[in-house]
Design a protein that fits this description.
The complex is a heterodimer of chains A (325) and B (206). Chain A contains eleven helices and no strands. Chain A is mostly helical and 325 residues long. In chain A, α9 runs antiparallel to α10. The longest helix of chain A has 28 residues. Chain B has 206 residues and is an all-alpha fold. Chain B has eleven helices and no strands. In chain B, α4 packs across α5, α5 packs across α9 and α9 packs across α10. The chains are: A mainly alpha (325), B mainly alpha (206).
Chain lengths: 325, 206
């Protein structure tokens, strides 16, 4: 049989001067255990063999022809190439492992179990076209089985509480000074906040198919709190409640600052802090007083504050979702 | 009217793509996820079995992979391949398990040596010839793969048993393609040494 590499004598291929190993007529006559004569050329060829087998484009066609030419005359390299090829064939011949059973049933049972994995929230993306809400980019994970899975309301609730606790900053400042002021305003804000929580959780369960729910939740919270703040600032007793609280807070801060100032080192640091805080409360009081006069201005600023809070929440939520895997 | 009904039916019959199923799962339709599990459990099992070398661990790993994937489904990028993403989770879990297994076996070996016992002979200590006689060629190849270091094992399994391209492997393992190739070539070299008896048997048979 004619050797297909024989018509390509290596000398013509520019592989330099080397001696063909005696008794090495070509690839087809490879015998295992044959010790090849190691030459620099063989070394180079062997480095190329994996690339040749992988056919990964690392070896140009003309170079490949030269390598094959070398293989036709060098039994050692031909043997190595042959072995490599056969190892690959052995692995490629391996059949896919047979599954002992269908795992889908077990997996779905484990997913639906009460202690199963709870899907992460998808990142909040508001589609530009609200009419296209059905095709929102990534909808919220919801569940159809209310008994075994965490319900939509349960998933949504903590988030709303987050929103509430962040936006409720102003009323919570007054909570520290409850004893000194008539707490009508607080009662009002608290009852409104409770109503909001209830109504939102109701809307959560009702609108469980709506993928924009988190956005609506945040908008509802923002608008309700804005209304509360507007109400407080436009009524004289609301303004009084806010400003008198701040006066008392300022007095308390000064007191604390004085007390802490007596402690060496620590006192110095904290006194600066308290001085700054006092200054801040001064300016806040002033702001509220001026804003009280013009309710429209106050409303605008309040809306901006709420929007900031909502934006912050959305960003935090998205960031927390990127963590994982 | 009739035509439109027929069309609707045709649409439902067409197999839904992965991105649709993922989207439906995120909307709360858990049966859509079942579709994904049915579609890919075989591939994940094959990877796990070839990596871990036994059916029981492979089964556990398949379950764990799909549970993790479900929990993190929201972070799946819709433009990526779902199978590649699953492979990423599965290969990480496999490597973790192999490492913990290694740590455990090192520990038990220490205990045995401390107690003055001869450590139990494992498959590596018996000669390839014996193994070749005892088992089929496939078992020998599987054992040779299982005895590779895990970083080499994973590329060999993905390249030759899962039929993935070098680029896909690089994507799954977050490695440059050059590194994948180097690992692949080294792994094949090791396998060549370990499978020499099988290769010689084949030559003799011929």
């Amino acid at each position: 049989m004619e050797n297909r590499f024989d018509h390509n004598p290596p000398e013509e291929q520019g592989w330099g001067n080397y001696v063909t190993p005696p008794g090495a007529p070509g690839r087809n006559s490879y015998r295992p255990g044959h010790t090849p004569l190691e030459t620099a050329l063989c070394q180079r060829v062997r480095e190329m063999l994996p690339h040749l087998l992988e056919n990964d484009g690392e070896i140009r066609p003309e170079m490949a022809r030269q390598v094959y030419a070398h293989l036709s005359v060098c039994a050692g390299c031909a043997g190595e190439f042959d072995e490599m090829e056969r190892v690959i064939k052995l692995m490629d011949k391996m059949p896919p492992a047979e599954m002992p059973q269908d795992f889908s049933q077990i997996i779905m049972q484990r997913i639906l179990a009460p202690d199963g994995p709870i899907p992460q929230r998808p990142p909040l993306r508001v589609p530009l076209n609200l009419g296209d809400a059905q095709h929102a980019v990534v909808p919220l994970p919801t569940t159809t089985d209310a008994t075994t899975r965490p319900t939509r309301a349960a998933l949504g609730q903590p988030q709303f509480n987050d929103a509430l606790s962040t936006v409720k900053v102003t009323p919570s400042v007054t909570a520290a000074q409850r004893a000194t002021t008539p707490s009508v305003a607080q009662n009002v804000t608290q009852s409104i906040a409770q109503n909001v929580t209830q109504s939102v959780s109701q809307s959560v369960s009702v609108q469980s198919q709506n993928s924009l729910l988190t956005t609506f939740q945040r908008l509802t919270a923002a608008s309700v709190l804005t209304a509360v703040m507007a109400f407080l600032m436009t009524t004289p007793w609301g303004r009084n409640a806010l400003s008198s609280d701040l006066e008392a807070l300022k007095a308390w801060m000064q007191q604390m600052g004085d007390a802490l100032n007596r402690v060496p080192l620590f006192g110095r640091m904290t006194s600066y802090l308290f001085a700054a805080l006092t200054q801040m409360s001064d300016s806040v009081t002033e702001t509220y007083r001026t804003l009280g006069a013009t309710a429209a201005k106050g409303l605008t600023i309040d809306i901006a504050l709420c929007a900031c809070a909502c934006f912050f929440l959305a960003v935090r939520r998205q960031r927390s979702q990127r963590v994982g895997l | 009217m009739l035509k439109s009904k027929g069309e609707t039916r045709t649409i439902t019959l067409v197999e839904q793509n992965d991105a649709d199923l993922v989207r439906q799962t995120l909307c709360g339709n858990t049966s859509a996820y079942n579709g994904l599990v049915m579609r890919y459990q075989r591939q994940v099992y094959n990877l796990a079995y070839r990596m871990l070398g036994n059916a029981e661990d492979a089964g556990d790993l398949v379950q764990e992979t799909f549970l993790r994937a479900y929990g993190a489904l929201a972070s799946f990028r819709q433009d990526a391949s779902f199978l590649t993403w699953l492979y990423k989770i599965a290969s990480n879990l496999c490597i973790d398990q192999l490492r913990s297994r290694k740590a455990r076996s090192a520990l038990s070996l220490d205990v045995e040596l401390e107690e003055g016992r001869e450590p139990a002979a494992d498959s590596r200590n018996s000669s390839p010839e014996e193994l070749a006689i005892r088992d089929s060629v496939q078992d020998v190849v599987q054992r040779a793969i299982t005895n590779l270091p895990e970083k080499y094992r994973v590329v060999v399994v993905m390249r030759h048993l899962q039929d993935m391209s070098v680029e896909e492997i690089a994507n799954v393992l977050d490695m440059p393609t050059g590194t994948v190739k180097t690992h692949l070539f080294r792994a094949r070299e090791m396998l060549r040494g370990r499978l020499r008896s099988v290769l010689e048997m084949e030559t003799d048979g011929k």
